[in-house]
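Whiteboard transcription, Tuesday session. T.W. wrote the C-alpha cells on the left side:
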C-alpha cells in the first residue's frame, strides 16, 4: 500500500511538471525562469549526490542531495531572472522598466595575429515601436 502511494505521488508530480512545461504562456520569461530553476534543481541534486562519494559514510549524509537541489533552484532562478532582463532600460507601450542588463560575451578573431579576444556587450536601451 505504501509503495502504491509513492508511485501515485510520483506520477502526479510528473504530470504536473509536464503540464507546466508544455503550457503556452503569453510571456515566455516566466516559463524560462521556471525551466532554469528546474534544471538548476536537477544539476544541484546531481552535484550533491556526487559529493556523497567523498564522505566516509554516504548513507549518513543523504541530505547533501537536498541541499544541492535547493542551491540549484536558487541559482537557476537567479540565472533565469538575470537572463530575462535584456537591457538596462526597456520602453514598452510608453512604460519604462529598469532592470539589470544581460552581459553577453562575443569571441572576435584577429586575422593578422590569429588571436581570439573576448568582447563583452550589454544592451543599455531597448524599446518597441508600434
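and on the right, the sequence the group agreed on:
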Amino acid at each position: 500500500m505504501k509503495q502504491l502511494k509513492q508511485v501515485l505521488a510520483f506520477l502526479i508530480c510528473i504530470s504536473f511538471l509536464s503540464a507546466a512545461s508544455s503550457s503556452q504562456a503569453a510571456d515566455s520569461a516566466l516559463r524560462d525562469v521556471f525551466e532554469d530553476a528546474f534544471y538548476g534543481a536537477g544539476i544541484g541534486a546531481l552535484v550533491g549526490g556526487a559529493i556523497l562519494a567523498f564522505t566516509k559514510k554516504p548513507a549518513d549524509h543523504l541530505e547533501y542531495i537536498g541541499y544541492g537541489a535547493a542551491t540549484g533552484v536558487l541559482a537557476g532562478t537567479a540565472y533565469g531572472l538575470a537572463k530575462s532582463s535584456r537591457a538596462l532600460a526597456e520602453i514598452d507601450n510608453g512604460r519604462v522598466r529598469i532592470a539589470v542588463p544581460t552581459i553577453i560575451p562575443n569571441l572576435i578573431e584577429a586575422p593578422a595575429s590569429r588571436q581570439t579576444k573576448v568582447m563583452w556587450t550589454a544592451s543599455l536601451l531597448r524599446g518597441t515601436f508600434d
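Someone added at the bottom: The mean pLDDT is 75.
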